[in-house]
Design brief:
single chain; 611 residues; alpha+beta; five-stranded antiparallel sheet; two-stranded antiparallel sheet; 14 helices; 6% strand; elongated
Length: 611
């Protein structure tokens, strides 16, 4: 204990630095400034942590995959892993926010509070030290004045003694003059002794004060400065440790986030992703077979019998436009179908209700999902109906509980909904059974298109290939292939009737809107009353503006500029010129006034171009 006290005394500023007042004042000021600078470092670091967390969250938000109902069913393992990585990064951002908050609350506030207290203690100690020093300097000044007074009195006394001795030795002076010199000498000696006594007294007071100042008062001030400087040093040590502890507290959570990323990476399976691609895009078509060789030197034996049909088909092709085939005509019929009832409504995702526009495999998947959905709805509605039946029975047994007639209406509505759901379920089950029972898998539309183009190039084609794409089930119902639609079959029937001289009204034009052949503008050659001039005009019109596809209006548009035409939401039109980069698409439509054509905004329509 004594050795520790000796060591403490030997290392005290009051003893070792008794004459370094100014240096100690400067050192403590620099120490507190450095401590506050450390606090600014913690503040800026906390701001960086907050900004880092904010940017991480923004990064997660920007790269969050868009939700897709179809992709949610079968997500790729890479996408699932990436979503998990984003989740872990968001958790990392949360931990950085925790670090920033703890640095501000537990470190920065403590530093600022300690720095404030240190400044106040230093100011108080330096003020006291300055007062003690000023008192000592004042006493030393008093001592200097007393010493100077004593020195002056002593010199005057010596001079008076010397003057007296000279006068006493001079026989020419009178006794009165000698006595005068003696009295002056005594006075000066008295004053000298008084000044000497005052000097001695002030010297004693100054020495005592100086001893008290350098051995007790000022060392106490220096020791307080040492104590506050050591407190600052200890605070620096503690706050550095505390800032490290803040990081250590979140390290386990950060480690778990990193482990989650590694786990997400390990969950990626390339084989499973490949199977998902197969399930997602498998069409069920078979690869196309060999294209048959057509020997042009051999004339078909029954070509003369089909010459009339061939000529009729040729006239039809000429009427519909240069290079336009029946397949394109069938696609046009779908446009003109807007004037009749829609026989195949679309679902919310743009597909037909029977999914006939999908490849076989994808259609079976959609039909299976639809059947399962309807089965669930039927089960739910059946449970609700059973509950209402029980409630009605309870009310009938005890009328105090309620009126059975109030449940009767709800029960009837539930039964009607249940019947509709069952009918729809039977319909989709039948479609699914038909899709599963198909033994012949059709070729892809691309392959059919290649084959059909090859057949159309033959000058000896008898048109029999136009009927090869229609399949019939056991009940005799038509099931067009996936490259066609309901409007296509309607178009074929109308064209066939036109070729046979049927379906002609009083004016000699087609009477069915579903045929897509309108009034006088679409009269077939040889159909009856269509004039030659009108036919020529129609031929030139179609040759100049053969439809490139169809479009559907997403929003209503009011024509306000020259060359544009109005349209209503959901209206279907023909595309005759695509957008050339100016934001406008040229379209046409058939109305009571005949054909109308003009420009509409490209962003207002959804286009489907012909292949």
């Amino acid at each position: 204990m004594a050795a520790q006290e000796i060591e403490t005394i030997s290392t005290s500023w009051g003893k070792e630095l008794w004459d370094q007042y100014d240096n100690l004042a400067t050192h403590t000021q620099k120490g507190i400034d450095f401590f506050e600078r450390f606090g600014h470092f913690i503040r800026d670091r906390s701001a960086i942590e907050v900004e880092y967390a904010l940017k991480l969250r923004r990064l997660v938000k920007n790269y969050q995959p868009k939700k897709n109902k179809e992709d949610d069913e079968n997500e790729f393992s890479t996408l699932v892993a990436f979503k998990n990585v984003l989740k872990e990064v968001a958790d990392l951002a949360g931990q950085r926010e925790v670090v920033a908050e703890n640095l501000q609350n537990q470190v920065l506030q403590g530093i600022m509070l300690l720095a404030k207290n240190l400044r106040e203690e230093r100011k108080k100690s330096l003020t006291q030290g300055a007062a003690l020093t000023q008192t000592l300097h004042t006493q030393i000044g008093t001592l200097d004045r007393a010493k100077r007074s004593y020195e002056k009195s002593f010199r005057e006394a010596e001079k008076a003694i010397e003057s007296y001795h000279k006068a006493d030795a001079d026989f020419h002076l009178s006794r009165a003059d000698v006595e005068k010199q003696r009295v002056n000498m005594n006075i000066r000696n008295t004053l000298s002794e008084d000044a000497k006594s005052e000097y001695a007294n002030q010297l004693q007071i100054t020495n005592k004060l100086q001893q008290q100042h350098y051995q007790a008062a000022l060392p106490e001030v220096f020791n307080r400065l040492q104590e506050l400087d050591e407190k600052r040093t200890r605070g620096m040590k503690e706050f550095i440790k505390r800032s490290a502890d803040v990081e250590c507290e979140v390290s386990p959570i950060i480690a778990r986030c990193l482990e989650g990323m590694v786990k997400a990476a390990d969950s990626i399976n390339e084989k499973d992703d490949s199977m998902i691609v197969i399930e997602k895009y498998q069409s069920g078509f078979q690869p196309p077979g060999d294209i048959p060789f057509e020997d042009l030197s051999k004339v078909d034996s029954d070509s003369s019998n089909n010459s009339q049909t061939h000529n009729s088909s040729t006239g039809l092709n000429h009427m519909t436009g240069k290079g336009t085939t029946k397949e394109k005509l069938k696609k046009r019929v779908g446009i003109f179908g807007i004037f009749t009832g829609n026989k195949n409504n679309l679902t919310t995702d743009g597909l037909k209700e029977d999914f006939s526009d999908l490849p076989p495999t994808q259609r079976r998947k959609k039909l299976t999902a639809k059947v399962q959905e309807l089965q669930q709805k039927v089960a739910q509605e059946q449970a609700a109906s059973d509950g209402l039946m029980k409630m009605k029975g309870v009310y009938e047994a005890n009328s105090m509980l309620g009126d059975p007639r109030t449940v009767e209406e709800q029960l009837n509505e539930s039964v009607n909904r249940l019947d509709r759901l069952r009918i729809e379920l039977q319909r989709y089950q039948k479609l699914l059974d038909q899709a599963n029972s198909q033994t012949v898998i059709q070729h892809s539309p691309q392959a059919n298109r290649v084959i059909q183009n090859g057949q159309r190039s033959s000058r000896h084609s008898n048109g029999s290939s136009n009927h090869e794409n229609n399949h019939h089930d056991d009940n005799g119902e038509d099931h067009p292939d996936d490259a066609g639609s309901l409007s296509r079959s309607a178009s074929e029937s109308s064209v066939q009737q036109a070729q046979n001289g049927l379906n002609i009204n009083n004016n000699g034009s087609s009477a069915s809107p579903e045929s897509g052949l309108g009034t006088s503008h679409t009269s077939l050659p040889g159909s009856g009353q269509g004039s030659t001039n009108e036919q020529a005009m129609n031929e030139e019109y179609y040759e100049a503006d053969t439809p490139l596809g169809t479009c559907r209006a997403l929003y209503p548009f009011d024509a306000t500029s020259e060359g544009s035409i109005p349209m209503s939401e959901g209206e279907e039109l023909q595309v005759i010129e695509v957008d050339q980069g100016d934001g406008w698409t040229r379209v046409r439509r058939f109305s009571t006034k005949g054909w109308e054509e003009g420009f509409v905004p490209t962003s207002y329509i959804e286009c489907t171009l012909y292949a």
